């Protein structure tokens, strides 16, 4: 158990003093049949189902269901408008603009840098090693007294590999700020989630999402798991009703079908192996990074020309060829067997014709 961590020492002064927005229904306990406190339309909605009442601001039913699946208690769970909301709140809670800094380990998910820029917070980049693992010495050298957050994505985007667990634990033990571990792709990995270690590491925030394995990207529901004290800070800062009622209802229904998700995960992992093996047999493919995610990073000849060729065929992949440490690479999301066959045929045709 890490003992040197002090949440109060990390928080911005204005957040410590913040009095969160409170509605009459937050203050009222019990059942009511006449709701005349929130200036809602009492007659209903112009729809087959009424959405005239504000949603549960803390999504109690949804968090209880997630507790059954994830094993993290509701008081240690934050739900946001995608993981991006949680990322933004971390900056607003802990980073004083133009004073504090955070550490990023590229190549990695681009929203960490975007959120730093939006919040006017300096970021220090410590590149991953050539095998896409943490440079522990470089990270240690980059930390100073104003470093508040370290962002680590595992499995990593865009490389797809998992970061060594021992290295993440080393940072958690030795860094007195917040370690943000983004596990957006954890469902596709054999690695265990760090949500099981929240009690041991009070400075850990784990991000997950329902946009990937759960197939609910359009609903924009992200999750943050941390100590109850950190989650209470999130709830102070978030808008009062950040998750709408329709999303809460649809997600609650989707969470009842875990077996369907597990079937899709197994299919995706199997297709990942099939596509990886097929692409590796093409002479112009130089390297494929072993992946624990639902995508593969492929280094190949003429990446930009191939990308344009695929677009012309109506196939959209991600061009990462100009990203440092990903030079010459395209990122392929794993699709259905039919979609993967189309991608493979298009890649083979491109190299065969020399276009």
UniProtKB/TrEMBL annotation:
<keyword id="KW-0663">Pyridoxal phosphate</keyword>
<dbReference type="InterPro" id="IPR005861">
    <property type="entry name" value="HisP_aminotrans"/>
</dbReference>
<keyword id="KW-0808">Transferase</keyword>
<protein>
    <recommendedName>
        <fullName>Histidinol-phosphate aminotransferase</fullName>
        <ecNumber>2.6.1.9</ecNumber>
    </recommendedName>
</protein>
<feature type="domain" description="Aminotransferase class I/classII large">
    <location>
        <begin position="49"/>
        <end position="346"/>
    </location>
</feature>
<comment type="similarity">
    <text>Belongs to the class-II pyridoxal-phosphate-dependent aminotransferase family. Histidinol-phosphate aminotransferase subfamily.</text>
</comment>
<keyword id="KW-0028">Amino-acid biosynthesis</keyword>
<dbReference type="InterPro" id="IPR015424">
    <property type="entry name" value="PyrdxlP-dep_Trfase"/>
</dbReference>
<dbReference type="Pfam" id="PF00155">
    <property type="entry name" value="Aminotran_1_2"/>
</dbReference>
<comment type="pathway">
    <text>Lipid metabolism.</text>
</comment>
<feature type="modified residue" description="N6-(pyridoxal phosphate)lysine">
    <location>
        <position position="212"/>
    </location>
</feature>
<keyword id="KW-0368">Histidine biosynthesis</keyword>
<dbReference type="GO" id="GO:0008483">
    <property type="term" value="F:transaminase activity"/>
</dbReference>
<dbReference type="InterPro" id="IPR004839">
    <property type="entry name" value="Aminotransferase_I/II_large"/>
</dbReference>
<dbReference type="InterPro" id="IPR001917">
    <property type="entry name" value="Aminotrans_II_pyridoxalP_BS"/>
</dbReference>
<dbReference type="InterPro" id="IPR015421">
    <property type="entry name" value="PyrdxlP-dep_Trfase_major"/>
</dbReference>
<keyword id="KW-0032">Aminotransferase</keyword>
<comment type="pathway">
    <text>Amino-acid biosynthesis; L-histidine biosynthesis; L-histidine from 5-phospho-alpha-D-ribose 1-diphosphate: step 7/9.</text>
</comment>
<dbReference type="InterPro" id="IPR015422">
    <property type="entry name" value="PyrdxlP-dep_Trfase_small"/>
</dbReference>
<comment type="subunit">
    <text>Homodimer.</text>
</comment>
């Amino acid at each position: 158990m890490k003992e040197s961590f002090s949440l109060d020492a990390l928080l911005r002064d204005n957040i410590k003093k913040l009095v969160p927005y409170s509605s009459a229904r937050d203050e009222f306990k019990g059942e009511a049949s006449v709701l005349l406190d929130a200036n809602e339309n009492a007659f209903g909605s112009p729809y087959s189902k009424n959405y005239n009442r504000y949603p549960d601001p803390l999504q109690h039913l949804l968090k209880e269901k997630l507790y059954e699946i994830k094993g993290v208690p509701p008081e240690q769970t934050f739900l946001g408008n995608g993981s991006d909301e949680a990322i933004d709140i971390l900056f607003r809670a802990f980073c004083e603009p133009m004073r504090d800094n955070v550490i990023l380990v590229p190549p990695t998910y681009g929203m960490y840098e975007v959120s730093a820029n939006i919040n006017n917070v300096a970021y220090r980049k410590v590149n991953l090693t050539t095998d896409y693992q943490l440079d522990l010495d470089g990270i240690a050298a980059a930390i100073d007294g104003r470093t508040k957050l370290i962002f680590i994505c595992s499995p990593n985007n865009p490389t797809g590999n998992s970061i060594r667990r021992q290295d993440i634990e080393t940072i958690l033990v030795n860094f007195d700020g917040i370690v943000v571990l983004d596990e957006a792709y954890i469902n596709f990995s054999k690695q265990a989630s760090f949500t099981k270690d929240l009690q041991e590491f009070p400075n850990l925030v784990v991000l997950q999402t329902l946009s990937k394995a759960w197939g609910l990207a359009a609903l924009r529901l992200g999750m943050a798991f941390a100590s109850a004290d950190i989650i209470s800070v999130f709830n102070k800062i978030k808008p009062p009703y950040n998750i709408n009622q329709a999303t809460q209802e649809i997600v609650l229904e989707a969470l009842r079908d875990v077996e369907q998700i597990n079937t899709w995960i197994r299919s995706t992992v199997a297709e990942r192996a099939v596509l990886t093996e097929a692409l590796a047999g093409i002479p112009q493919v130089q390297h494929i990074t072993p992946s624990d995610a639902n995508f593969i990073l492929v280094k190949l000849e003429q990446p930009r020309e191939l990308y344009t060729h695929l677009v012309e065929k109506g196939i959209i992949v991600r061009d990462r060829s100009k990203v440092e440490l990903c030079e010459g690479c395209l990122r392929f999301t794993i699709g259905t067997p039919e979609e993967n066959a189309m991608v493979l045929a298009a890649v083979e045709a491109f190299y065969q014709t020399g276009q």
